[in-house]
Write a structure and sequence with these properties.
about 170 residues; two-stranded antiparallel sheet; single chain; alpha/beta; about 35% helix; 8-stranded mixed sheet; globular
Length: about 170
């Protein structure tokens, strides 16, 4: 677990966003994997310890393919990760990575309100209901966590992950 936290901290502080979208997607895939390692889902999210962790990605075909290949064969604990294209059908999604304009992402986040889904998205502003938002700072990928949104989804985020995140709230 310490190794995963170190990886998150290094990614957050050292990896500049390159000119290639694929490189940025690979960095974000690493973040997604590590985010999942520091989340406690509601007890009803998995029927057993080896259930698949379902990651739904709403983004370009290239983004989906890069994330799928980056996470191929990876596990979170004993849960193998399965990447699905599109997040409009969020039934069974443990995580949703959402790209697009703020209006589209906001609608997708609203569809997740049933609980138990970690939403990770990228927009210029914090969106109500979104749990983790990627943003750029000094040409580096960073992230912020909305604890109120996490609580409303029934998610518990490790203090180790929170230590390397910017904490945000839409309730301010």
């Amino acid at each position: 677990m310490r190794r995963a936290l170190t990886c998150i901290a290094l990614l957050a502080s050292l990896v500049p966003v390159g000119s290639q979208a694929a490189l940025e997607d690979q960095v974000k895939a690493a973040f997604l994997l590590n985010f999942a390692k520091f989340i406690q889902w509601p007890a009803t999210s998995f029927s057993n310890v080896t259930d698949t962790l379902r990651l739904c990605v709403a983004g370009s075909d290239d983004t989906v393919q890069t994330i799928r290949s980056s996470l191929a064969g990876k596990r979170v604990g004993r849960h193998p990760i399965e990447v699905h294209s599109g997040a409009t059908d969020t039934a069974g999604c443990h995580m949703a990575y959402l790209q697009g304009d703020a209006g589209v992402v906001k609608d997708l986040i609203a569809a997740l309100e049933s609980g138990g889904t970690l939403s990770v998205y990228e927009t210029d502003t914090l969106l109500e209901g979104g749990v983790i938002r990627f943003y750029l700072e000094n040409r580096k990928v960073r992230f912020e966590v909305n604890l109120d949104a996490a609580r409303s989804q029934g998610l518990v985020i490790s203090s180790k992950l929170l230590a390397v995140a910017r904490i945000a709230s839409t309730d301010d």
